């Protein structure tokens, strides 16, 4: 190997290690997994975690990062020993983190690495994480707004971000359409649902403000479930209400958040509308405003508690004279029945 090739290899391996930290910080799990060989391994005995292969590394990253409130990782260069198409090395790590359940602290660690040259370039064959110092004292500082900056729960996602979310949703089995606004969604819902179908609408400001709720429940073109439920005495007809709400032909709703990893998150006080969304309805249509996009499940939960619940609580106080509550949560990570679930992503913000 000539000196120029050795220099190029060292530069590429350094770039590989830097991209690992960047993918972690940006919560880009697919990119993180792609930095490993197909049979690559990520081992963290202190946690303990052992993930073999890109699929396990991707799934493990999603589980781990869903627990974070915030996380910062700094990588410092260490040794690299080249041996043809393989190499070994070390990278030195400083991390500061807090999880959603309140665990927090900082540590210093070492990644013991093995690298392999592939057609895609240098990739990790193995990373073994060794903690050298751990301090679990309460952190004095804060992350402004946590994983999402304060106030951004009402900001509209860019077209690029919507396309990224749409791709993740499609990968998870949902049908997805990106539409300009609620008016376009209103037209599309009428096209998606045949007249005469039984339809349950969720209690949603998105549906109310867009006019979709009125179209489905008051036009007479559909077998509207919600007006039937509202006409039944709750004390004597609880079982009938439960059966009606559980399995309509169509459920039409919005969500509290949609993650960049392709998951839909719904919140409810009573939980009555969740069975149909989860799978009881033969078909589901979710209309999602552009402000509901969040990076991950942790941010989705924060959006519900810090943004959606206060707004819904104010509405319930005004309309019903009582507080709202998040008593039930539904996370739809994927749609296992092809063609069942359609997500209409809007370029405009509507609802909460």
Oligomer: single chain
Largest sheet: 7 strands, mixed
Shape: elongated
> How far apart, in Å, are the first and last alpha carbons?
60 Å
Number of strands: 17
Mean pLDDT, rounded to whole units?
89
**Count of helical regions:** 11
Helix content: 25-40%
Extract low-pLDDT stretches: 145-151
How much is the radius of gyration in Å?
Answer: 24 Å
Percent of sequence in beta strands: 25-35%
Structural class per helix/strand content? alpha/beta
H/E order of the elements? HHEEHEEEEEHEHEHHEHHEEEHEEHEE
Describe this protein's structure.
The protein is an alpha/beta fold and 352 residues long. The chain is 35% helix and 32% strand. Strands 1, 2, 3, 4, 5, 6 and 7 form a 7-stranded mixed beta sheet that branches. Strands 8-17-14-11-9-10 form a 6-stranded parallel beta sheet, sandwiched between helices. It has a 4-stranded mixed beta sheet with strand order 15-12-13-16, sandwiched between helices. A hairpin with a 4-residue loop joins strand 5 (86-99) and strand 6.
């Amino acid at each position: 190997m000539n000196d120029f090739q050795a220099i190029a290899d060292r530069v590429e391996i350094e770039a590989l290690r830097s991209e690992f930290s960047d993918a972690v910080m940006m919560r880009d799990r697919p990119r993180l997994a792609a930095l490993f060989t197909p049979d690559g391994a990520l081992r963290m005995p202190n946690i303990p975690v052992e993930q073999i292969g890109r699929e396990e590394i991707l799934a493990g990253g999603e589980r781990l990062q869903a627990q974070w409130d915030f996380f910062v990782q700094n990588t410092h260069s260490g040794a690299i020993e080249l041996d043809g198409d393989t190499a070994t090395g070390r990278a030195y790590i400083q991390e500061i983190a807090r999880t959603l359940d309140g665990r927090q602290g900082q540590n210093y660690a070492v990644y013991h690495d093995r690298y392999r040259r592939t057609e895609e370039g240098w990739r990790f064959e193995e990373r073994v994480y060794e903690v050298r110092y751990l301090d679990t004292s309460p952190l004095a500082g804060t992350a402004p707004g946590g994983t999402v900056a304060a106030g951004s729960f009402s900001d509209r996602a860019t077209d690029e971000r919507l396309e990224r979310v749409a791709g993740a949703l499609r990968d998870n089995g949902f049908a997805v359409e990106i539409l300009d606004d609620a008016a376009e969604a209103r037209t599309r819902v009428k096209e998606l649902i045949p007249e005469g179908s039984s339809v349950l609408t969720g209690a949603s400001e998105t549906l109310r403000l867009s006019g979709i709720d009125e179209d489905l429940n008051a036009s007479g073109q559909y077998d509207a479930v919600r007006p039937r439920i509202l006409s039944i005495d709750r004390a004597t007809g609880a079982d009938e209400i439960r059966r009606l709400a559980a399995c309509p032909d169509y459920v039409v709703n919005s969500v509290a958040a949609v993650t960049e990893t392709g998951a839909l998150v719904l919140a409810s006080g009573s939980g009555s509308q969740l069975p149909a969304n989860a799978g009881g309805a033969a078909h589901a249509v979710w209309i999602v405003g552009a402000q509901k996009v969040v990076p991950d499940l942790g941010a989705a939960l924060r959006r519900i508690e810090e943004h959606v619940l206060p707004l819904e609580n104010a509405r319930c106080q005004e309309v019903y004279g009582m507080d709202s509550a998040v008593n039930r949560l539904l996370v739809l990570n994927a749609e296992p029945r092809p063609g069942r679930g359609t997500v209409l992503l809007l370029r405009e913000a509507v609802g909460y």
